[in-house]
């Protein structure tokens, strides 16, 4: 089946969001523009890694440009998006591989999220990685988004806030606390 590329050049909205209660949330990236919405499912750790890496790439691009790149130092308050994910929420694919690049000629951050490559037992991880980065018509589905520096900062801020809003950590073992407590390994299994 030919690859689907969901491309958004300066979307009206690009956010990370969740569905469900802390402890059983599903994490999504969602891009929308001109009535079109694309949502992809990913893991909490992927959202955190993406947001942290976006911040690092923007900081490095700003540093290398000597402060001339059109990138704000922090997310502009007037652009911060706290609205829930757009509906209908239809998952296009589960994210496997992500990539970031700063396009210094145009001043945009490019975010790519590719679908998990499904197949028989992946004994050859190197071959699977090469397939993921091939840009041919039979590769995995992909969400590709071009963001301004300001929009990228806003995305990263929301994503980091989203990840931090999960379950509070146990003060003894740092594992997440469920609403009914948890069996703490530091307390010899006593419920906290």
Structural commentary:
Helix content is 24%, strand content 29%. By secondary structure, it is α/β, with parallel strands linked by helices. The protein has a 7-stranded mixed β-sheet with strand order 1-7-6-5-4-3-2. The radius of gyration is 19 Å and the shape is globular. The mean pLDDT is 86.
Structure described in brief:
The chain is of the alpha/beta class. The protein has helices at 44-64, 125-133, 149-164, and strands spanning 5-9, 13-19, 26-33, 36-42, 91-103, 108-115, 142-148. Strands 1-7-6-5-4-3-2 form a seven-stranded mixed beta sheet.
Write the SSE topology.
Layout (H helix, E strand, L loop, with lengths): L4 E5 L3 E7 L6 E8 L2 E7 L1 H21 L26 E13 L4 E8 L9 H9 L8 E7 H16 L28
Parallel strand pairs: 1-7, 4-5
Antiparallel strand pairs: 2-3, 3-4, 5-6, 6-7
Secondary-structure-based class equals alpha/beta
Unreliable stretches, pLDDT < 50, 5 or more residues? none
Q: Based on CA inertia axes, which overall geometry fits? A: globular
Mean pLDDT: 86
Order of helices and strands: EEEEHEEHEH
| Beginning-to-end CA distance, first to last residue | 51 Å
Question: Percent helix among the residues?
Answer: 10-25%
* DSSP helical segment count: 3
Number of strands: 7
Order of the strands making up the biggest sheet: 1-7-6-5-4-3-2
Q: Any idea what the radius of gyration is? A: 19 Å
For the biggest sheet, the summary is: 7 strands, mixed
Quaternary structure of the protein: single chain
Strand percentage, roughly?
A: 25-35%
